[in-house]
Fold each of these.
Amino acid sequence: MTHISSEGTEIEIGPLPETSLSKVLASYKGNKIIIVVDENTHDLCLEYLITSFPALEKSEIILLPNGEENKVMEVCMQVWNAFSEYGFGRKDLVLNLGGGMVTDMGGFIASVFKRGMDFIHIPTSLLAMVDAAVGGKNGIDLGPHKNQLGTIVKAKNVFIDLAFLQTLPEKEFYNGYAEMLKYGLVYDVALFDELSKFKTEDDFNRHDIIEKCVQIKVDISDRDLFEKGERKLLNFGHTFGHAIEGYRLQTDPISHGHAVGIGMCAESYVSMKRGLLSQDEFHRLQALLVKTYPFLTFSADCIQEIISLMYNDKKNEGGKIFSVLLESIGKGIYHNELSEKEIRESLQHISLLAESLN
Ligand SMILES: NC(=O)c1ccc[n+]([C@@H]2O[C@H](COP(=O)([O-])OP(=O)(O)OC[C@H]3O[C@@H](n4cnc5c(N)ncnc54)[C@H](O)[C@@H]3O)[C@@H](O)[C@H]2O)c1
């Protein structure tokens, strides 16, 4: 069992029945426990949780529809109405059991209901284990704009049990992998080197690597919870990634990790063009991303639409687009203003690459 202390959150990595969850649940005795799941985690993860903790047998289950397209206000409204009907109060506890969609939205729902209820995350996807469940960001999307409504409130506890990965579809591992690569690229070259050797599904099931990623997220987010500086590094790949994901959300959704994978290539391209990242490092990274994520082509109209979406990015200031760039693999720099020309050239580069591969 690994314990990681983050300000305001206790994180445990290990088999759920061996964690302090039963002690935590005992401290809510007399209060209601609400478990938030989506359709998949309801079917595949809930039984293990409930059978491990008899205290949960009488808990209320809130079922969210699957998928990012449901990380929206309309679904939150339905859940808050249900919370009211069931008479849930501030002292009750919300347990979010799911991937990043469930932890982002369940955290948001709990953090604003009656001005805030306690909540715990039990992440079930690799992405949620290494990233979404840690660091206090909760939120939902607004139309094509990702995570536009949200709060920064930390889960009381995060319990990470790799047993949940047994049912995770293979493609979902690559979503988590994108965020893991991000940590290596902006912060830890040795982690990147290790990750770049991953070949099979088993490689993702690594306690040591998941722990390393969680520790990086905790270290950075504890030093800069409200993203005034250093935490911006963790947005590497997301300026392009969020806009690409948002662009596709209404028509033909792609996963967060897929969009971030392409976004990391786009932002590395800008880094290389500015003479920050060496050509060798850029090509090494591009080769890894191309073989991991299907690259997309973007028409001129589509590029314009993506640029418009980028103007809505939360990291912008004064109507300008900012992004994280790389000085080298393992060293990111934040607060770089991007010109429309650079964005266009970078997306054209991605398109040409995608065409050459098809
Ligand atoms: N708050 C943050 O700091 C932060 C950081 C990164 C990403 N995010 C958010 O996280 C979300 C993406 O997370 P995600 O990739 O986990 O998406 P997700 O929650 O939609 O999960 C992906 C799919 O896997 C299924 N699933 C989850 N666990 C499973 C399991 N154990 N077995 C079988 N199926 C399982 C889900 O039902 C879903 O169909 C995005 O909304 C993104 O914006 C938040």
Amino acid sequence: MDPAIPSPRFRSHASRNIPPFLAGIFLGLTLLHAEAQTASSKSAWPSRGDAIGSLLTATPLERAAFEDDAALHAPIKEAGPGDWLAQHDEKGQTFDAYRLILPRVKPRTDLRALAILPIGEFGPKAPSLEKLRRYCELFFAMPTSILRAVPVDKVPAKTRINSNTNKRQLLTTDILGWLPNQKPAVAYAVIAVTMEDLYPDESWNFVFGQAMLQGGAGVFSFARYDPSFYGDTSATDLSTLIFKRSCKVLTHEMGHMFGIKHCVFFECLMNGSNHLDEADAQPMRLCPVCLRKLHLHVRFDLLKREESLLRFYEEQSFTNEADWSRKFLGKLRPHSSPLK
Ligand SMILES: [Zn+2]
Ligand SMILES: [Zn+2]
């Protein structure tokens, strides 16, 4: 299928976290979008236990990592009126459902690298690409490289000026049509990152990012992660906030590129988000359902991955994330063996 054609294979993220007069416009427009018409029906979702799936044949370490442990994982919160699940019909993807689609998501087992492709300029306020690369490498436990940056005018994507912000936007579906050809031969997936604003079709105000569930390509923008995009220059040190938001959107979008759909079971990195407040409230970690999916795909060492993430969180002073990671490691360590 032509990846430039919008389809349910794409996952989009838009935000209403803009001045109220813009939010109204945005909501009106999103209702026109095919994927944004109905709220999720919570009663139809599988239970959290069914979503995790049977752990009978799992190793003790896997059981410790994937079981529903209330001390580590909170069930997903009720959605507020402007939240993602109030406006999008998510069915919930169980681990067993993921296992069935894995051969399609991962048609080749030899592709064990990721690539980040910068589009346009990354000025002094942009997040560090090297730190993002490292986070991505630790999170997915795959070697990750940064490709040579491509100037905006060299990307074959339609542009428009957003009438609310008067800022240039690039059409994501054009980028996603071009991107697979930029993917290195050894890479499982390539993700384009940019400080330019994005839109997925004419009826939308903007999107944070968009990824293909199959095909190994995605694009996301950091533009709206800086409050100064909306004219708010009151905050003094925004670099930690912008970097954390960028880490989250990068790994969330890449999670989709591993075939993981939005999570409706726990508070989780893979929850959908409709606005920045909702995205900021979501954790950087995966819940047991989504971690089990990623583990099935990548087959990483659960303990080593968490230890390296803990070191990263400590280095970046991500205190809450580091605290959680220590707690999780405390649970995993007694079940590790030298053979694992
Ligand atoms: Zn998403
Ligand atoms: Zn999850």
